[in-house]
Each structure stands twice: as C-alpha cells, then as structure tokens.
C-alpha cells in the first residue's frame, strides 16, 4: 500500500516539494479503491463523490446519447486525474459515466478533503491550481478535436499530446474518440 | 480608470478579501486595453500574451476550419475571463481566434504577472484556482453541448447556465454556437 502512495508523492513532487509530515497529511485525505475491467465508477445521473488519481489501469469518461450511443469525452491512465468536474465541484448529478477499460487502482479525494488540503497546505493549493489549468487545457483541446474536420489532423493532435495513450487504447475506442470508422483509423495508423 | 479596477476588485472579492494594499499590487499587474466591435484580439497561429478579464463588451473565441467556417468555442462578457488557455499557459501558438462582438474593454494579465501574483499573494493563488476550476467546468460543459444531440436540450443547457448571455448574443451566432439553423433557433425561442 505504501508503494501506491509513493506514486502520488512522486506525482505531486513534480510540482511542489512536500516534507514527509506534509505528505502524511495529504495521503490521509485519499481513499484507495480498486476496480475490475468494465466496472463503472459512477454513472450519468449519480452523485460524484470523488476526484480520482489513477494509480494503474485505464478509464474512459463518456456521454450516452438518447440512442444509447457512447461518446467518449476523455481517457485517463496512470498519473492522470479524472472526474466529471461539474458534478464533482458543484454537487450536481453526473452528465457522464466513468468506467474502467482495464483493472484499475485509484486514489479518491472527496471535495471536503480537497478543500481541507487547500486550506491547510498552501503547496497543495498551488499543486491543484497547476492540475486544474492542465485539466482546462485538456478540455479546450478536446473541444478543438471536435471542431477539427480532418480525421488525420485529429489523429496527429492526439499522437502529439499523448503518444503513450494512443498505444494503449483499444482501436475501436480510439476510432470512437476520433469520430472515425475503424477502417479510417487503420489507414491513419499505417 | 479607477472605476474600471473597481470591477476587478469586486470580482476578486467574491472569492477572497484583499486589503487596499494587496489590491494595489494586483491591479498594477494588469494592463487596460479597449477594442472596437469586430476587432480581433489574437488570431489563430499567433502568440497569446494575456489572459483577459472582460470589463465591458462581448467576446467570441472561435476556430476556423479548412473551409473557412467559424466554429464558436465560447462567448465571454463582463466579469468573465477568456483566452486560448493552451496557447497562453504553454506558450504555444493559438488554435483559436478571439474577437469582439461589441466595443470591449479588457484588463490583460500576462503569464509572468500571473505567476508573480500566485507567488506573492496566496489569496490570488486561491482566486485563480477557483477561476481555473470554473473554466474547466465550462469547457467540459461545452464538450457536453457538442455531444448532446437534441437542439432543444442544448438550448436549455445554455439558458440554464447563462440566461444573461443568451439575451445578449446575436441570434445568428447563437444558432452557430448551438449548431442549429436560424429557423430552428426561432422555434426554440418561441
């Protein structure tokens, strides 16, 4: 278990340097949970209790339209944060569903503990500011991908930003994320 | 001019309370600029020097596709912040263009001064964390609007979140934002 928290410590350490005592306060605010492939962490319409730091595995955040078609908003793998941000921060019901594409281990932070960390540790407020900016950038780039008409350009944008992710995601889901057919994706890959 | 900065002071005061001395430090970090209707503040491919706080007027942030068609990412009016966040925070070239739909007055904050404020005033770091989370929420909600297939649902989402904005935006642009024809929009309005 200590190993698990080391991943979080290294991750935070890229932005701010915490003492062992400070990190003990931080790690005490997280809950460890593990899920199996295909598990749903929260569903559209539900309460979203946590923001999730991915220790291992792979997540997809998606929207289900009225024809029960899934539209992928984002993927998240090790060292990434994920949640339905609107639902989490404003106590609204989830617009999206978060599900596991692989067996997944998460560290879960409640809004109460998020606020507690920000109030008690200035360094964590700085850390979350950096992560929040990164999340905002990621979402604006996802908007760009919806607007970019060329499949090749969308694919190249994704590869440039997240090469490791592209290798990891099942091809059918990658095609769905990019809004192309499986055949078009194969052509782009080659 | 002092009046202008009062708007910023009130805006920040909704999140954190600054002393007059602290606010003097903050306001010294901003540059005032005014633009005429139809002016472009930055264009796709350009450097993005500032994040903008809108004092008066109305902005549109948009992407131009290969057929020179404009796709609206977001609008911003008084009391809102706007920029191409990826370009601003990472010193990349803009993917979007920011233009004025009305005569517009802005307070402009450079990345250098953003960092300076975060480093010198913990309260401003807290303020920017709240604004960054709000920006992230706004972008994830915009993603939702792209994925929501029903025009009526998209319209209702926008009305629920930003009633004042809906009244203010020219109908043709509102239709473009919602991805519907002008006729469909008129039907929704009635």
From TrEMBL, chains A, B:
Supply the SUPFAM superfamilies for this chain.
cAMP-binding domain-like
InterPro entries, per the entry = cNMP-bd_dom, cNMP-bd_dom_sf, HTH_CRP, RmlC-like_jellyroll
Keyword DNA-binding in annotation: yes
Keywords attached to this Swiss-Prot or TrEMBL record, sorted alphabetically, are:
DNA-binding, Transcription, Transcription regulation
Entries under Gene3D superfamilies matching the protein: Jelly Rolls
**Where is the HTH crp-type domain positioned along the sequence?**
137-190
Swiss-Prot/TrEMBL GO biological process terms: regulation of DNA-templated transcription
Entry keyword annotation includes DNA-binding: yes
Which GO MF term does the entry hold, naming one? Answer: DNA binding
Query: Which residue ranges does the record assign to the Cyclic nucleotide-binding domain?
Result: 14-117
Q: Pfam families from the entry? A: cNMP_binding (PF00027)
Top-rank lineage group of the source organism: Bacteria
Which named protein is this?
Answer: CRP-like cAMP-binding protein
Annotated source species: Sphingobacterium detergens
Higher taxonomy:
Bacteria, Pseudomonadati, Bacteroidota, Sphingobacteriia, Sphingobacteriales
